[in-house]
Design a protein that fits this description.
Blueprint (H helix, E strand, L loop, with lengths): L9 E5 L16 E7 L18 H9 L1 E3 L2 E2 L5 H10 L15 H6 L13 H7 L3 E6 L22 E4 L28 H16 L5 E6 L20 H24 L6 E7 L24 H4 L3 E4 L8 E3 L4 E2 L3 H9 L15 H4 L11 E4 L25 E5 L2 E5 L7 E4 L15 H17 L3
Parallel strand pairs: 1-2, 1-8, 2-7, 2-8, 3-10, 4-11, 5-6, 5-7
Antiparallel strand pairs: 3-9, 8-9, 12-13, 13-14, 14-15
Helix pairs in contact: 5-6
Length: about 450
Amino acid sequence: MPFPCPTWRTVVAVFAVCLAPISAAAGDRPHVVVVLADDLGPGDLGCWGGTVAETPNIDRLAKEGTRFTRYYAASPICSPSRCGLITGQYPARWKLTSYLQTKAGNRGCGQADHLDPEAPSVARALRAAGYKTAHFGKWHLGGGRDVADAPKFAAYGFDEHVGTWESPEPHPDITAGDWIWSPKDKVKRWERTGFYVDKALDFLARHKDDAPCFVNVWLDDPHTPWVPNARAGKGQETAAALAEVLAENDRQVGRLLAGLKKLGVDRDTLVVFASDNGPLPTLGGKRSGGLRGCKLSLYEGGVRVPLIVRWPGTVPAGAVDTSTVVAAVDLFPTLCAVTGATRPKGVVFDGEDRSAALRGKPAAGRAKPVFWEYGRNEAFFKYPTPGAGAKTTDRSPPVAVLDGDWKLLMNADGSGAELYDLRADAGESKNVAADHTAEAARLTKLAVAWRKSLPD
């Protein structure tokens, strides 16, 4: 049903993360645009102190909004991370434990071939609330390789879509070959970010005056291969190539912001910028911003990634929130609060509503701890290795729990516990389990019970 009000507030979640219970009056519902960067680390951004590339447009977001330094992805790898965003629940509840691949590989990881369409979907919930919905960009929640029966985008609540090869409905302009990208693609690898931004702005232009919009803009970059231009061939893993890719991503974020202003929604736009998981390769740790770990690891460098929120007049400008723990699974319940959408009946979210933090009121704690799991066996899961651009100390135990400043990592049976006080040791350099036995025992009990609750 179209809404009568001619002005819609816009929420752009550049990446993915938590919008909050801001006003959801019937005539004042936000557009929501989720822009998700792929494998972006804190050291990739100037505003996080990174030196890999200059990122003036993203840095401007930070100056005009709030940086959250304790934002956590739902997984240290692509598919389950995205599942957490879409569902508001831990991905293993829906049998997603690693990146979606061949059917044989999925079986080896103990996972499904695609996200179950019966799972909660933020797009479906917002569509039921009157939103126009679209997904532009990487999906990786089903489709590609030998999985030909993945549900279509409409099954998850999307009205329009542009999918990559790893999706149920690949767009012909970016899928000329039977792989993630091809030199024969009409839209070249280094042009994709601009392609997605164009699609998002066109969608908003067509619907901004008759309905609020929910739009995913999920980027391929800066995931490897780094292909900044035609000369790069099949891709390069050098600091120079990454710098060019990051510069183009940043330029397109600037185009997105300029486009919102041209559409007349800049002042009523909430922009949220973040990443799906940590970086790999890390370029000697530079991309992890001083954190231990990387993609494929449950140490901070694998799951603690950038989040910037901007909304003039609502989100404090130039602020840095170093205390509020925001999790990717918070996006769904928070968006329900922002938009007035009804939460799906019978669904118990693992995420929480984090609106107060957006308004400049850091949250002292969470109602529930945050949990992760990654790496159920040696044969089918990928792990950080020096040959893949990681450090020997980047590989983590397969289960983790975060409660306040305490973080515990362990094996699935509770053995091998490592306990870190993140307030004193964000780099996870000193295991203090032997010094805090009661805390280690408490968190081990919680994590073991949580891991046992997951389907095998």
